[in-house]
Specification:
The structure is a single chain. With 313 residues, the chain is of the alpha/beta class. It is built from seven helices and 19 strands. Helix 1 packs parallel to helix 2, helix 1 packs parallel to helix 7 and helix 5 runs parallel beside helix 6. The radius of gyration is 21 Å and the shape is elongated.
């Protein structure tokens, strides 16, 4: 078996966290290697208009801002490798990584910026109207639905947080939940139930997203108790049924929380394995914003650089 290709620092993921980590690490002369999948750029690449990232007063398309991130990382000689990491061994030093094409890599320090993926309903029509009425982030996209009628799908804290945020912007917010009671915390339930702009459809699922060339115009809804089908007029649907962190290959090797997010030391990006750092949505289940992901990417690069320097690597 051939010896692995060794690097001082490898970064996994090419969203705002991973690319920011690459920019800082490259400027620190760590010669980082960034590994990305076939669709680099993270969740912003499936976002249209981005209006809340500082520095772009007129807004910018999601794919464009990620291309600018990449260009900046390339300027400082970040090496990019396309492919998926299928296994890793964080018990050995240097750390061992294997890619889907059987390439074998090793590194002294590892930054994990693999992000998280929103859970969707799985409807063909949902995909058809993605970014044309369908979203998984009210903080990101709610501004575009001012004074409109929107729906939120879900019954947990995230769904009610989305609904309460949207109630400040939208004409009406309808929470669609497949059960007859909410899973959210009591305090979140109390806030949502007393908000005059928020109404609830219980025992209800979404059968189809309705729309035309202008985008989404409504939903076909199914009442699970009566079997009845109704159509409601909505110009937006926010799916809030959770996120899945992309951390599966680290399950037996790093400390994760109950939902699979990587645990880090407070105020840092240090994980349970010395020399492994986590940033972005792979460890952030609270904010999940591009700007906060970029901030933790900066933190991870600085943490890694100082850790390597202390060991004279």
């Amino acid at each position: 078996m051939s010896a692995p290709t060794h690097h001082r620092l490898i970064i996994l993921g090419s969203g705002p966290a991973g690319l920011t980590a690459a920019i800082y690490a490259a400027r620190a002369n760590l010669k980082p290697v960034l590994i990305h999948g076939i669709q680099p750029g993270g969740q912003l690449t499936i976002t249209t208009e981005v209006e809340n990232y500082p520095g772009f007063p007129e807004g910018i398309q999601g794919p464009k801002v990620m291309e600018l991130f990449k260009q900046q990382a390339e300027r400082f000689d970040t090496q990019f490798i396309e492919g998926e990491i299928v296994s890793c061994d964080l018990r050995k030093r240097p750390f061992q990584l294997r890619m889907e094409d059987s390439a074998h890599l090793s590194c002294n320090a590892l930054i994990i910026a693999t992000g998280a993926s929103a859970k969707w309903l799985g409807l063909d029509s949902e995909q058809k109207f993605m970014n044309r009425g369908i979203s998984a982030c009210a903080t990101c996209d709610g501004f575009f639905f001012r004074n409109q009628d929107v729906a939120v799908v879900g019954g947990g804290d995230t769904a009610l947080e989305e609904a309460l945020y949207l109630a400040n912007l939208c004409r009406t917010v309808t929470v669609i939940h497949r059960r007859g009671e909410l899973r959210a915390s009591k305090i979140m339930q109390a806030r949502a139930l007393k908000n005059e702009k928020i109404t609830f459809l219980w025992h209800t699922t979404v059968d189809e997203v309705l729309g035309d060339d202008s985008g989404m115009i409504g939903l076909r809804l199914h009442n699970l108790q009566t079997g009845s089908i109704i159509e409601g007029k909505f110009t937006g649907m926010f799916v809030a049924i959770g996120h899945q962190p992309n951390t599966g290959i680290f399950k037996e090797q790093l400390a994760l929380n109950e939902n699979g997010y990587i645990s880090v030391e407070a105020g840092s990006t240090f994980t349970s394995v010395e020399g492994v750092f986590a940033c972005g949505d792979a460890q952030d289940f609270v904010y999940r914003q591009a700007v906060t992901a970029a901030g933790t990417g900066c933190m991870a690069a600085i943490d890694a650089e100082r850790w390597l320097a202390e060991r004279e690597i």
